[in-house]
């Protein structure tokens, strides 16, 4: 059973975390229709009870804040949406799609879905697009994260089959982590790496990453490569393996093909020849190769650093070549292991819900595969023409080839590259349907029809994690308002569209009358029978009875398959894996766009530890902002000094497609000549579209995955003519979400805008603005009234008309509840901790409106209240930890005293680094 009674009022339901592809099991605690808690599931083999900061706070994301609750529709483009019933909403959608199909053909409509959908949701959308509409224009946001890994696996191993399991981490004696800050992006996987290192100190770890991340600091060897040089590096490593005879010639002879052709292309890829382009000394490249080639069991882990590249498929293939050349595959602790970025990216690949895939790992280009699937779905044929992939789809939407688009559970108005063009495309479309749990995403603003979907904790179905493990989710609580499960919405629409298209020939498919999610899953797994991803032995009932299972799991099996290719036989025509040579001379352009005198910096993008994608969920939890309290761009200290830039000041980061104005941070993990900007912030929290206002729409020619990791940019000081800041205590997450949603339309009117949250028990909402000239009074009054800072609500005031300074405060029972500082904002930084902690204003009251950047001496906030939060679970700041370490306490003693690092463990890498730094400082002072 997945749901149990733990007390008369409290019930528990087993589920799976909805963030990264690790697939952690969770137990949802719920009372009535409310989720009140969450903890790790100790019986789930992906995490054995552990959760990261994001997973452990899932229950704090399940309120009504920002949720879409009822269908909403525009009567005309530009008009406000109004609430409508489901029948009118879906009938209208069916009529509009049918009309476009009749006038322009099935390829004039498209579906853009998500790796956060359940497998059952994915399956229904895929069948709807191909069997009913008759188009292959269905793609997933997994195109943005995993399609190069898919293409790399298929090019080398013959199928998109990840051969490894998490248990291989404990069996390996060498880990090669490539393009992944696992400590932040997959924290529970990193906990297992830490466990493996502790159990086996001889385990060696090599990390390849342009930044010195927390993962890189944990490694024995960090290759801080130049951005885009991954392929050169792995070819050079293979060159060393050949030169020093560290290859398995028997495995190459018996189980692979194409090796001679690849070897002929490696001549100019010696370490000495590529060292300059890679930015890594030749001897360190050779050392990395020897560590890999001399190991008993070598396991590689990779993620977006390899995939999000204009040569991402070749990157993945080159890494897999190291395993094929050394026979490091198909046995414990060995193999190429791609880490999926989303909770069900793997499930989407299984059902074929991407423009170039078909269910059961079938090939769209294979006529036999299409015919087999058409027969199963009861239609004469399936469309042959390849569908539009993510970037292509929105290009076609912009130029009119696609007229109507259905977007489900994803936020392309934040996540795709070249955001200016994406927004233009959404405005140009004839009809935009957004099926979404949250009404306050950037994409929801473009919806002509907004359909409310159920979210985590409210849905039943399955997901597949990075190690091919299928897990069950069972709804714990009902969805709010009229929100419905995604599969049910798609199936209901399909039935209505089917009636509209009746008599249209091949477009009128059938089979959308499933009784429940279990029936959808049964149809899906039946299509996998006999395929490399055979799941025909799985069912909802079996998963309920036996727990999560790895495929292949054919009919009649009693257990899943932990490891693939143990027999050396691969799913290719001749049973051999393939070396897939790609001509890539040293002179090839490493970056998707070159830096030059006007744009001399390489912008790197990536993830933060405590935020997820566009923050529609995590961004509503104040304590998850503590680790990185605001959007900012980081440079190496050398570049700060060289360019005369100051930490904390605003800068203008500009590229060929757009610009953003953000505060500046110093970060020595970033190499000189590079800038670092996390991808989470967008037009929902900033004046501009964040990192993807700058990123490049160029894609890998094979996988069509966009090169989201690098862009050429310039940086310059931005000196505003006017600044303002508002800080207000929200009564709950719903009010904070309402404030954010109401303010979003105003943000684009400023050069700089930033919305953020702070606090733990109380929610502190912040808005900061900067512009060339003061904002209109009407805009200021709108913001004041919304945040409780107008004259009536905040009577405590100060004004200096000559300097354009206006300050207001609402103080009740000695506590500051709201602030508005315009024209002079420095004091907000030290007043904020007072509001977060709820500390009485006390003796600071006379200084409330003083133009001070720091509090008066002796009147500061409580010790440790200020500074970035290192331990989100317990709210422990860097200042408190540094003070304890400086007193001579060991790391263990600091943990005992402050409790940092004793819950989820996500902060342990940072704690180790701080302890090492304190020890070095102590040794230096002693000498």
Automatic annotation (TrEMBL):
<dbReference type="InterPro" id="IPR027467">
    <property type="entry name" value="MopterinOxRdtase_cofactor_BS"/>
</dbReference>
<dbReference type="GO" id="GO:1990204">
    <property type="term" value="C:oxidoreductase complex"/>
</dbReference>
<keyword id="KW-0004">4Fe-4S</keyword>
<dbReference type="InterPro" id="IPR006657">
    <property type="entry name" value="MoPterin_dinucl-bd_dom"/>
</dbReference>
<keyword id="KW-0479">Metal-binding</keyword>
<comment type="similarity">
    <text>Belongs to the prokaryotic molybdopterin-containing oxidoreductase family. NasA/NapA/NarB subfamily.</text>
</comment>
<dbReference type="InterPro" id="IPR041854">
    <property type="entry name" value="BFD-like_2Fe2S-bd_dom_sf"/>
</dbReference>
<dbReference type="InterPro" id="IPR006963">
    <property type="entry name" value="Mopterin_OxRdtase_4Fe-4S_dom"/>
</dbReference>
<dbReference type="Pfam" id="PF04324">
    <property type="entry name" value="Fer2_BFD"/>
</dbReference>
<dbReference type="GO" id="GO:0016020">
    <property type="term" value="C:membrane"/>
</dbReference>
<dbReference type="InterPro" id="IPR007419">
    <property type="entry name" value="BFD-like_2Fe2S-bd_dom"/>
</dbReference>
<dbReference type="GO" id="GO:0042128">
    <property type="term" value="P:nitrate assimilation"/>
</dbReference>
<dbReference type="Pfam" id="PF04879">
    <property type="entry name" value="Molybdop_Fe4S4"/>
</dbReference>
<keyword id="KW-0408">Iron</keyword>
<dbReference type="InterPro" id="IPR041957">
    <property type="entry name" value="CT_Nitrate-R-NapA-like"/>
</dbReference>
<dbReference type="InterPro" id="IPR006655">
    <property type="entry name" value="Mopterin_OxRdtase_prok_CS"/>
</dbReference>
<dbReference type="GO" id="GO:0016491">
    <property type="term" value="F:oxidoreductase activity"/>
</dbReference>
<keyword id="KW-0500">Molybdenum</keyword>
<keyword id="KW-0560">Oxidoreductase</keyword>
<keyword id="KW-0534">Nitrate assimilation</keyword>
<feature type="domain" description="4Fe-4S Mo/W bis-MGD-type">
    <location>
        <begin position="10"/>
        <end position="66"/>
    </location>
</feature>
<dbReference type="InterPro" id="IPR009010">
    <property type="entry name" value="Asp_de-COase-like_dom_sf"/>
</dbReference>
<dbReference type="InterPro" id="IPR006656">
    <property type="entry name" value="Mopterin_OxRdtase"/>
</dbReference>
<dbReference type="Pfam" id="PF00384">
    <property type="entry name" value="Molybdopterin"/>
</dbReference>
<dbReference type="InterPro" id="IPR050123">
    <property type="entry name" value="Prok_molybdopt-oxidoreductase"/>
</dbReference>
<dbReference type="Pfam" id="PF01568">
    <property type="entry name" value="Molydop_binding"/>
</dbReference>
<dbReference type="GO" id="GO:0046872">
    <property type="term" value="F:metal ion binding"/>
</dbReference>
<dbReference type="GO" id="GO:0051539">
    <property type="term" value="F:4 iron, 4 sulfur cluster binding"/>
</dbReference>
<keyword id="KW-0411">Iron-sulfur</keyword>
<dbReference type="GO" id="GO:0043546">
    <property type="term" value="F:molybdopterin cofactor binding"/>
</dbReference>
<protein>
    <submittedName>
        <fullName>Nitrate reductase</fullName>
    </submittedName>
</protein>
<dbReference type="GO" id="GO:0045333">
    <property type="term" value="P:cellular respiration"/>
</dbReference>
